């Protein structure tokens, strides 16, 4: 994960999730309103202290499906169809705990995922979690063949800069979007073991090229895509500069901006990042050699 909100303390093998906000220590309680949790009413270390992996994605249905999928992959007891939504007290997000894995939805767009991430990181801190690896699973446009899984090296903005700009108290704050290179490389290595579908490492760009208003020509769009490709961009999606994605390309933007693949093909595409991450998690947990 990019070091936007997250910091870790401890030695290399025992890193405790920390937050960069000294004012939290002065609060009697921390209400994680949009997750329907609170430090005073919930024992967060008992509920979440064993979390090692967090997987987030935009769609509530997709993250429930992933929770059920990882439940089966880890061969956990009980019925995977009965996974419980911890956030059922709110209609903003869904959250499922499956052994050491947390599966959470984040909605659509930068504001929605930002709100979720603030509360998620505080949750991991309050729960005293260690050595947590965070993933975002998603779909995207691409500048490559549809169905390719892109493991983000770094997220770039519309000018191909690896940074996220935010206005805080009237001042522009710029933060790096560089991700954990070790995790990216390990994901690619694990992906090569499956050999089911193509996976690459590349940059992810935030933005859309089609919409209700268009101020550029088709030729200008293609020229921009060529520049993006030359800058290392391999896929395009909406929230990447806040939290980059392990995303599957649903279409090639060189060929158009509309998704035309059949529904069953798209469903299979959407499962590809989940399969990659599940394999990574099982390897880390030594479920498979």
From TrEMBL:
The enzyme's E.C. designation: 2.4.2.3
Binding site for substrate: 206, 208
Disulfide bond annotation, renumbered to this chain: 87-94
SUPFAM superfamilies listed in its UniProt record: Purine and uridine phosphorylases
Reaction it catalyzes: uridine + phosphate = alpha-D-ribose 1-phosphate + uracil
Molecular function terms, GO-annotated: uridine phosphorylase activity
Alphabetical keyword list: Disulfide bond, Glycosyltransferase, Transferase
GO BP annotation list: nucleotide catabolic process; UMP salvage; uridine catabolic process
Pfam families: PNP_UDP_1
InterPro entries in UniProt: Nucleoside_phosphorylase_CS, Nucleoside_phosphorylase_d, Nucleoside_phosphorylase_sf, Uridine_phosphorylase_euk
Pathway(s) per entry: Pyrimidine metabolism; UMP biosynthesis via salvage pathway; uracil from uridine (phosphorylase route): step 1/1
Tree of life domain: Eukaryota
NCBIfam families hit by this protein: euk_UDPppase (TIGR01719)
The protein, known as: Uridine phosphorylase
Organism: Mola mola
